[in-house]
C-alpha cells in the first residue's frame, strides 16, 4: 500500500531565472508523474533571461520595432548542441546571420582613438577573398592575407592534431597561453587577430583568456570550425515566453541563505517590496546563479567556489557613431544594408588595445551595442545600459567544477568528502556548471543534469 506521504508532491525551489533556472523549471514541470511542486526566486522584478534586452522603435514607423538581445545570445551547430535541440523541440525560430568583423586597434594613450581596420574578417570565412580595408594597398593586403591564412591554417591544424596537456593529480591543465607557446604561433597573430576575436566571445581581458584551460579554447575552436551562427528571430523574449512555466514565481526576492534543516532545506529571502525577511522549507533546491552568489548563500560551498573568478562588465545600447573606427567605403555596403534588414550580413566591430577588446554590434536603425566598452561613449547618446556578470575559467576552476559534477555523488562520496552536485538535495545549474566555455550550452546541459537527478525525462533527448 502506498502511504499518504509518498503521494505528496516534493517541493523544489529554483533560485535564478536566467536560461539555466528557466530550463530547470521547464524540465521539472515536464515530469510525467507530476511529483514536483516548483517555486522560482528571482532578485530582479522580472524574469531575467530577457531582462537586459531592449526594444528600439523606428522613428519613421513607430509601429515597427526591433528587439535587441543584451547580451548577444548567438549559438551554433557544433557547440550549442543541446540548446539547438531544445529550440527545435520548442519550435523557436532562428536565423543564420552572417557576421563581418572589422578588426581595429584602440590607441594605448587615448582610448577614444581607433585606427581604421587592419583586417576585415568574415564569420566562417564567408567572404573569400576577405574584404580589403580601404587604406590598405593591394600588395600589403595580399601579403597580410597570406600571412593570416598560414597562421590560421597552422592554428586550426594544431587544434585538431595537438591535444592540450591534461591535468594530473599534481599538475593543473595546460593553460591557453602555454599551449599557444608550445605550438609556436606567432605573437603578432595572437595579439592582433586571435585574442581579439576570441575575447569578443569570452568578454574578458586578453590575460584572463590566456589563463583559460587550453582545452576550452581548443574545443570551442574545433566545434565551431566552419559552423554557421544563429540568433533567435525576435530575440530571446520568444524563448522566455515558451519556457517560463513556473506556477509560482517570486520576483524581487533576493535569496540570502540556503541551509539544511534535518532532511529538508530552508530558503531565506528578502522581499524587495515589503523589505521583510521570509523563509520556507523545501525538499530540493536548485541554485541557478553564478558561483559567487552560490558561495554567498550556501555555506558548504563558500570556500570551494571562491576559486572560480567572476567579473562584471557593461553592455551599452547607444547611437554614438564616433565610437566606430573609420572604415571608409570598404564596409559601407553592409552598414547600409544592416539598417534595412536584419538578415543581411551584420557588422561586429572588434576594437582592441594590448590588454582587452570591446565588440560593437551594429543593429538595424544604426543602433550600436558595445559590450565591455574600452572607449568612452557619449552619455547623451546612450539609450540603455545593462550590468552583466561573466564567470571565467582557469585550470583550477575547471578542476573544482569537474569534481563537483563528476559521477554519482552517492558512490564517490564514500571515498572523498568533496561536495557533489545533488548532495543533500542541493543542485547547481548555470552556464558555468559544465566542462566548457561559459556560454548558453552550459545552462542547458546543467538543467538537463538536474532533471536526470530528479528522474525527469528530457523531451529533446
Ligand atoms: C556580453 C556577453 C555576451 C554573451 N554572448 C553570448 C552568446 O552570444 N552566446 C552564448 O551562448 N552565451 C553568451 N553569453 C553567456 C551567456 O549569456 C550567459 O553565460 C548565460 O546567460 C548565463 O545564464 P545563467 O542562467 O547561468 O545565469 P544568469 O543569467 O546570470 O542568471 C542568474 C539569475 O539569478 C538571479 N540572482 C542572482 N542572485 C540572486 C539571489 N540572491 N536571489 C535570487 N536571484 C538571484 C540574477 O538576477 C540572474 O537573473 C554572453 C555573456 C555576456 C556577458
User: How much of the sequence is in beta strands?
Assistant: 15-25%
Distinct ligand kinds: flavin-adenine dinucleotide
Helical segment count: 15
Q: Termini, distance in Å?
A: 34 Å
Structure summary, number of beta strands: 20
Largest sheet: number of strands, sense, barrel closure: 7 strands, mixed
Radius of gyration: 23 Å
Described by the principal axes of the CA atoms, the overall outline is: globular
Tally the structural domains: 2
| Spatial strand sequence of the major β-sheet | 8-7-16-17-18-15-19
Averaging pLDDT over every residue, what do you get?
A: 91
Helix content range:
25-40%
Strand pairing plus helix content: what structural class?
A: alpha/beta
Low-pLDDT residue spans: none
Pfam families: Amino_oxidase (PF01593), NAD_binding_8 (PF13450)
InterPro entries: Amino_oxidase, FAD/NAD-bd_sf, Zeta_carotene_desat/Oxidored
GO molecular function, one term: oxidoreductase activity
Keywords: Membrane, Transmembrane, Transmembrane helix
List the helices and strands and how they pair.
Blueprint lengths: L3 H4 L2 E6 L3 H11 L6 E7 L11 E4 L7 E4 L6 E2 L4 H10 L3 E2 L3 E7 L13 E4 L15 H24 L14 H7 L4 H16 L3 H5 L3 H11 L4 E4 L4 H7 L4 E4 L1 E9 L2 E8 L5 E6 L1 E4 L3 H7 L4 H4 L4 E9 L13 H9 L5 E7 L4 E7 L3 E5 L10 E10 L3 H11 L3 H5 L12 E3 L11 H14 L8
Parallel strand pairs: 1-2, 1-14, 2-10, 7-16, 14-20
Antiparallel strand pairs: 3-4, 5-9, 6-9, 7-8, 11-12, 12-13, 15-18, 15-19, 16-17, 17-18
Helix pairs in contact: 2-15, 3-15, 5-8
Flavin-adenine dinucleotide (FAD) binds next to helix 2, strand 2, strand 11, helix 10 and strand 19.
